[in-house]
Structure prediction request, 440 residues.
Amino acid sequence: MSRLLWAVGIMAAAAGFFFLFQTTRSDTVTLLSLWGILFLLYGIAIRDWAKVPFKFLIGAAVVFRLFGMLHFPNLSDDVYRFIWDGRLLAHGYNPFLYLPSEILTTAIAFQAGLTEALFQKLNSPDYYTVYPPLLQGWFAAATTLGETEWATVFWLRLPIFLGELATLWLLYQLLNILGKDQTQAQRGVLLYALNPLAIVELVGNLHYEGLTICFLLAGLYFYLKQKQTSSATSLALAAGVKLLPLIFIPALLNKKDWEKSLKYVLTAGVVFLLPFLFFFNLTIIENISTSLDLYFRRFEFNASLYYLLRGIGTFVMGYNPIATIGPLLALVSISLILFFSWSKKLKLSLPERWLFALTTYLLCATTVHPWYIVPLLALSVLSRFRFPIAWSALLPLTYVAYGQSGFQENLWVVAVEYLVVLGWLGWELSHNKSVKEFRQ
Prediction:
C-alpha cells in the first residue's frame, strides 16, 4: 500500500476523532473544515481503492463506526427524546399518550426519572412522539440496560452499528445478484462504507436510518431471491423503524398477479401493525396524526421545492402558506412516487425505482436533515446514478444554520446545495439511455 494511502488513512482517523469528540454543531468553521477534509480523503480513497486490499478498507470503515460508538451525539439532540420515551415505557407509561411539557411536574415524570435537565434538552417538548412502537420497545430496553445517559446511548446505538455491518454484507450480495463483477461490487460497497455522512450521521449521531437501510436492503434481497414472505417481513420492519419505507411497496406490486401482491401487502401490513397492538388506544391515532400533521405544516429546514413555493406564496399572499403548500407537496410526492413505481416506459431497475421514489419524497419535503439522504446513498450504490454521493458531500453545509448566534438558516447555502444536486441529476438523466427512450 502506498505512503499516500497510509497518510490518507491516518488523516481520516485524526479528522474523524476531532470531529466526533472535539466539535459541536455551533462551531461552524471547525465543523465545515473537518467535513471538507473527510470528504476530500473519501474521494482519494475511492479513486485509489484498488491499490489497497478490499478487506483492509472494509475493516477501516468498521473501525470508523466503532469510533462513533464511543462518543455522545454532538450534531443532533434527538437522542434525548429516545431516552424520554424509553424511560416512560420502561416504567409502564404509554409514550404516545403524554406530551413532555404536560407531565414534567407530575408524579409520572418523578417515577420515570424524567428530570428538568432532560426536559430542557428536548427539541420538541410540545409534540407527541412519532417514533413507531418497534423503536419504542428498544428505547425502553436501552434505558433499562443503561443506568446512566452514557450507558443508555451505548445500547441505543448498538442495533445501528450491527445494522450497518449487515448493510455492508447485503450491498455486496445485492450487487452480485444485479450482475456486477467482483471489482464493481467491491467498489460499490466502498462508496457507501467509507462515506463520511453515513459514518457520522448514523452510528455517530444515533439516527435509526441505519437500521432502516439494513431492513430495506434485506427486503430487496429476499424479493430478488423470490422469498416473498421474508421480503415483506423485512420491509415491514424497515417501516417499523421509520415510516418512510412504506413508499417503496407500490414498486413491488405485480399487476399481473394481484393475488401474490395482495399476500405481500397483507404480510407486510400484519408485521408492521402488530407492534401497535401493544400500545393500542384510539387516542394514539389522534396524537400521532397531530404530530405528523404539524411536521408537514410547521417544520421547515433545508427544503427545495417548498422554499421556492413558499417564497412565491409569501410574495403573493403576504404570509407563509406552509399549511397549504405542505399537504399539496405531499400529494404531488405520492403521485410521482406511483409514477416511478409503475411506469413501464421508464427502463429502471427495482433499486432505481426506489431511488427515484425517495428522491421525489425528499424534493417535495418541507424538512430534509442530512441523515435523511443516507438511505438514498445506499440505493444509489445499486443503481446507475451517483447524484446522492454529491448530495452527501453538500449536506454538511446545512450545519451553517447552527451558529454561535443561534439557529438561522442561510438560503444561499440551500440554493447552492440544490442547484448542484439537481444539476448533477439532470446531467445523469440526460446521459441515461432509458430516459432518452422515454422522451422519444
About this structure: Residues 300-440 form one domain. Residues 149-177 form the longest helix (29 residues). Confidence is low (pLDDT under 50) at residues 436-440. The CA atoms of residues 78 and 123 lie 7 Å apart.
